[in-house]
Amino acid sequence: MQDDEDIVKEALTQDGEALEFASNRLKGNKEILTLAIKTAPWTICYASDKLKADKELMLNACSNYGQALYFASEELRDDKEVVAAAVKNKGIIIKYASYRLRNDKEIVKLALDQDQKAFQFISAELKKEM
Question: What is the model's pTM?
Answer without folding.
Answer: 0.89
